[in-house]
TrEMBL record:
Family annotation (PANTHER family): BIFUNCTIONAL OLIGORIBONUCLEASE AND PAP PHOSPHATASE NRNA
UniProt cross-references to InterPro entries, sorted A to Z: DDH_dom, DHH_sf, DHHA1_dom, Oligoribo/pAp-PDE_c-di-AMP_PDE
Name the UniProt record assigns to this protein: DHHA1 domain protein
Residues of the DDH domain: 23-167
Domain DHHA1: 247-326
Gene Ontology terms, MF aspect: nucleic acid binding
Any one Pfam family match given in the protein's UniProt record, by short name: DHH
Amino acid sequence: MKSKFIPQMDSVIKCIEDNDVFVVTSHVSPDGDNIGSTLGMHRFLEKIGKKVYHVLDDDIPSNLVFLSKEVEKITSTELNEENYVMLALDCGDEKRICTSDDVKRNASVRVCIDHHASNDASFCEINYIDSKASSTCELVYNIIRRYGDLKSEDYIDEVIASRLYTGLSTDTGNFQYSSTAPSSFEMAKVLLEHGAERDMIIQKLYQSNSPNYYRLLGDALNTLSIAEAPNGQLVASICVSIDMMKKHSIGYNDIDGITTYTRDIENVEVGIFLKEKRKGEIKISLRSKNDIDVSKIAMQFNGGGHVRAAGCTINDTIENAEKIIKERVLRAF
């Protein structure tokens, strides 16, 4: 393996070899890369004889539950270990790590494996951060391959392959997004050769939405609002309230797929999806096609992410949050 990140990988590997107990966790509002990278690492650590806990104080989206059937997810209050390493995967910000402050603080060592451009590598002692990687699953894949090279053994099995393929698929938009690189296809090739269940993964991720999801989507699309930037490009926004989710019995973590509808409109450069987590707390997802770095916009609201995909939170009504974020986006043109 040739990579300028080998020293970072080796620092993670040394930490793994030097310790016996690990907590693997990720960010709030889990997604495919979150769950895929966390559980891919979980399986790898178990294979090499480590004790591992999957700690996440949030619900796994229904379309990703298939990945976690063989792994017990516990909450922070259920963790009863005193000496452990915390592996924070796919987290660009300490505040987004989905555990209690006690779990973060009590770790003997904290390791960050991440690909967010907004990650300043300041909240963990050991870091492997590559903002150009397609996904955190790709970084976990690199670590496992590097470890295998060092031990002259292949550690990727069908379970690891399927978990990592899931995150690779979701974070590249099934190989549509600009984050997709030659290494993404090479990784997909290797994972498929190792038994990744591609057809099942695609069905679970993209072809298994409930009827109620589409009923909610219909209501959400009725909120579509489009504004024109000074250069003639468009900004689109869609809002989903708590009442809309309750009406259709849809969970907060099960509607992120609506985000793409804001961007996938002709002449729209930036799409904005707003969803109400609770009254006065609005989660905002930003997506761009070409020229606008939405991570810089998200960072203005203590959020972050990638150039083409980022997020933040605004504490206000959903109506006011839409006005605030749209005004800030239009300033970026």
